């Protein structure tokens, strides 16, 4: 009997609904939102939510910020601290629903109205076992952006990442330069880290540990110790070792950048937030090369609003370059092809980077120490959630502990790990096919071969993630119509060195599963093969290299498509102050500007970039001595 026959209603409810295979059947997200709003008014937080400006726009603003995600919400909030500046923040999506506060329900947002539902072009080099052969990337279309959908991990990256940025000509972006901006945002609530010089308290962004961890995570920590890896603070002095996840949480619940930075600014009369507002183009005067304003649609009506100082693109590594290209900033050949007048001939959309490897790496267990959906008592879980901020819904499930380690191809003496091992207590099989399959976009055929035979069995997963990818992708125009999504070609594994590191990551994952502590729990590799790789010996390096191309797993850490660099860098789109070359009054402030992707999750670095950018804009536009005198 197939999964479809056993769970006939499951597929139709994934995405906008939470699928629990329990005696309650299917609990809709709408019902959960209503329950939370009644029983947890602190989560609903109606009195603090940003107000939509409606249709009463000013004719012009000093600053227009495009995108209210991990970076945009921050930069808009910080700029509006200057009372004499009027700031307009444009967001294509709505306000965040209440249920997204619950850490365990992050996957419920995928393929919903708050997800851009990005898909790549089909390519035989990767994502071959995804639906239609196309990678699927959930991306937030909502106040708070992808900080509403992500795994909430607060990881800054490695000192060497930022020092390399500075060494490549980006003055002011060394680790010592950026650390104060991480500290500016942070409100560290984990007791053992509060006194660390690498952390700070009192910032707008709360950082906490998860309120629930599956028993298997403790055993995996012991397995790492057995292999000689130390426990570390991943944002401390050393990034080599294993660590328990802490993240952007407030009282155990998700804290997006909208909650952290926009809600405290709600009553500022100089900050207008406009939701359901899709920017179509940045208006740039072709003669003066000066930004004029933006064109956007809202509720079926089109608006033109002017910017007297700057337009700031914070729409992410896909949307920011797309808007630049539509506005005449990009490679001349591409713009000429679509009849778009060239304002500045720049390599926009190039240099796309991401942290990737292979998904669905599952290890079965004999002992009941993992999280299986059918073992979750929904009444108990909801009661703990609603009344004590505890229980299995207070864990993101996908990543509870992680390890940053060196592959055989890296120099371990440099303390610059090139592999991350993310451990999942909720896997593609023990969630009943309800969540991870949707997030990863696995095809029916592959899911049937690889996962159905072990459905709802105890297991854990390991996602070995490449931290220093060599492969580079591209974002380009599909047409001159802003409603047409851009063409996204990540070009995963186009550099064979990435494939070698991915395979080595599987080797390390298998070593952890073969430790004494994990063998005592009956840990063993999933015996089922991916059909596209079944002709290779299993397991072997050749098989895993094939598997990486079949089930290509992205960490959704997209970066680099509007590269920051000095004027002599032919690949640079913005200068070290994030100003777009050749255009006055236009900046990019998000992960697009990363010259080289950081060694870790990108949410915290995007917030740092926005904090630093806001200060740079203030420095450029104001005399600080007069402001604070």
Automatic annotation (TrEMBL):
PROSITE patterns: GMC_OXRED_1 (PS00623), GMC_OXRED_2 (PS00624). Its cofactor is FAD. Keywords: FAD, Flavoprotein. InterPro entries: FAD/NAD-bd_sf, GMC_OxRdtase, GMC_OxRdtase_N, GMC_OxRtase_C. GO terms for molecular function: flavin adenine dinucleotide binding; oxidoreductase activity, acting on CH-OH group of donors. Residues 140-163, 316-330 form the Glucose-methanol-choline oxidoreductase N-terminal domain. It comes from the Eukaryota. FAD binds at residues 142, 146, 279, 556-557. PANTHER family: GLUCOSE-METHANOL-CHOLINE GMC OXIDOREDUCTASE, GLUCOSE-METHANOL-CHOLINE OXIDOREDUCTASE N-TERMINAL DOMAIN-CONTAINING PROTEIN. Belongs to the GMC oxidoreductase family. This is Glucose-methanol-choline oxidoreductase N-terminal domain-containing protein.
